[in-house]
Specification:
The protein is of the alpha+beta class. The protein folds into three domains: 74 residues, Integrase, DNA-binding domain (Double Stranded RNA Binding Domain), CATH 3.30.160; 93 residues, Tyrosine recombinase, N-terminal domain (DNA polymerase, domain 1), CATH 1.10.150.130; 183 residues, hpI Integrase, Chain A (Orthogonal Bundle), CATH 1.10.443. It has 17 helices and nine strands. A four-stranded antiparallel beta sheet has the order 1-2-3-4. Strands 5-6-7 form a three-stranded antiparallel beta sheet. Helix 5 packs across helix 8, helix 10 runs antiparallel to helix 12 and helix 10 crosses helix 13. It is globular and about 85 Å long.
């Protein structure tokens, strides 16, 4: 059926909203209040979405069809028309770095894990967009990008500077792919940044030194939540991004289990972390402060619906004098090494670290979580850390 202007004018409201179908997927919702709304349903990123194309008669039938054609072209070229509409409403010019970064994030929101998506978004919003957001990508220069990265370097966050350079490069390559830039100027900065330490993450593996570090954490005089994150990490040795974004809804204090959905995990597989009595004690200490918030390590800046910065605990370790000796990620190495020395099986330790089986044939048959065994192992580990600290 193809609608006419007369059809739209004659459409009377009913008790419930109903649909008038036009060609090529365009339709009109007639509301009980008399409103007539042009709509288009489409699929993007594996999800069904609806795009609003205006209200009749303010938007004519012809204008709605033109808008439909433009939206279909965007979907065909890999762009989400709803995202493009949000960019327009925000007043962003489509060829600025900020507009393209918003598009880039929208393209990957359903592909990446939630933790990775939030980390990249924050990295762009905090360290890049305030300085480069209004710049047309086609006019960006390598020195401008380098100046942004130098600010991060000055904080001593060399890994963050390197990661931010990678993300800027990805945004610029997306701009090239969508015809709004000719080159990736971030690629010209090879060798311009201080090189972060490569190889294994710094990790203490001597029990006496580990005990001294645990005592230093207990005496840390900075932010309470950063101290609590530092205190909990040795007992769970999670990936730092997963730790700071820990949610109360994912924790069962009665069964002593922290369960993470596949979307939050690097390997896109659900993961369960047994919690020792020591870990539960730390969580109970935090609960009076953040128990009503979404995140365990909630940030109370702004809306309160965010967690502390992923880098904050690592920066605290460096301020405590452990730069080059221990990192947040290094607690995973610490746990793995000392649990191996204590005689625990490698498969149990690898499960606890949420490492995937590299042998694809074995991985296909490996469905066990070894949860009962890991519960015993992590309680042993909690007792061991307590003795080290004493």
């Amino acid at each position: 059926m193809t609608l006419t202007v007369k059809d739209l004018r004659d459409a009377e409201p009913r008790d419930k909203q109903y649909k008038l179908t036009d060609r090529d997927g365009l339709y009109v919702l007639v509301h009980p209040n008399g409103g007539k709304y042009f709509r288009y349903d489409y699929r993007f990123g594996g999800k069904r979405k609806t795009l609003a194309l205006g209200t009749f008669p303010e938007t004519s039938l012809r204008q709605a069809r033109d808008a439909l054609h433009e939206a279909k072209q965007q979907v065909k070229s890999g762009l989400d028309p709803a995202l493009s509409r949000r960019i327009e409403k925000a007043g962003l010019t489509k060829n600025t770095f900020e507009a393209i970064a918003v598009e880039f994030l929208g393209q990957h929101e359903h592909e990446w894990s939630e933790t990775h998506y939030v980390r990249v978004k924050r990295m762009l919003e905090a360290d890049v967009i305030p300085w480069l957001g209004n710049r047309p990508v086609s006019a960006l220069t390598a020195p401008e990008v380098l100046e942004v990265l130098r600010r991060i370097e000055k904080r001593g966050a060399l890994e963050s500077a390197a990661r931010t350079k990678q993300i800027i490069g990805q945004v610029l390559r997306y701009a090239i792919a969508t015809g709004r830039s000719a080159r990736d100027v971030a690629a010209d900065l090879r060798g311009a940044l201080k090189a972060p330490t490569r190889g294994s993450f710094a990790a203490i593996e001597d029990p006496k030194e580990l005990g001294a570090l645990l005592r230093a954490i207990d005496n840390y005089e900075g932010s309470f939540l950063v101290r609590m994150a530092l205190a909990l990490q040795p007992y769970v040795f999670a990936r730092p991004g997963n730790l700071v974004s820990m949610m109360w809804d994912d924790i069962d204090l009665d069964t002593r289990l922290w369960e993470l959905d596949a979307e939050k995990m690097k390997m896109r597989r659900p993961h369960a972390v047994p919690l020792s009595t020591q870990a539960i004690s730390i969580l109970n200490e935090i609960r009076p402060l953040t128990g009503s918030s979404r995140f365990v390590f909630a940030s109370f800046h702004g809306t309160g619906d965010k967690h502390i910065c992923r880098e904050a605990p690592g920066m605290a370790i460096r301020r405590m004098g452990y730069k080059g000796r221990q990192t947040m990620h290094g607690f995973r190495t610490t746990g793995s090494t000392l649990l191996h020395e204590a005689g625990f099986r490698s498969d149990m330790i690898e499960k606890q670290l949420a490492h995937s089986e590299r042998n694809k044939s074995k991985a296909a048959y490996d469905r066990s979580t070894l949860l009962p065994e890991r519960r015993q192992m992590m309680q042993h580990w909690g007792n061991f850390l307590e003795k080290c600290k004493e």
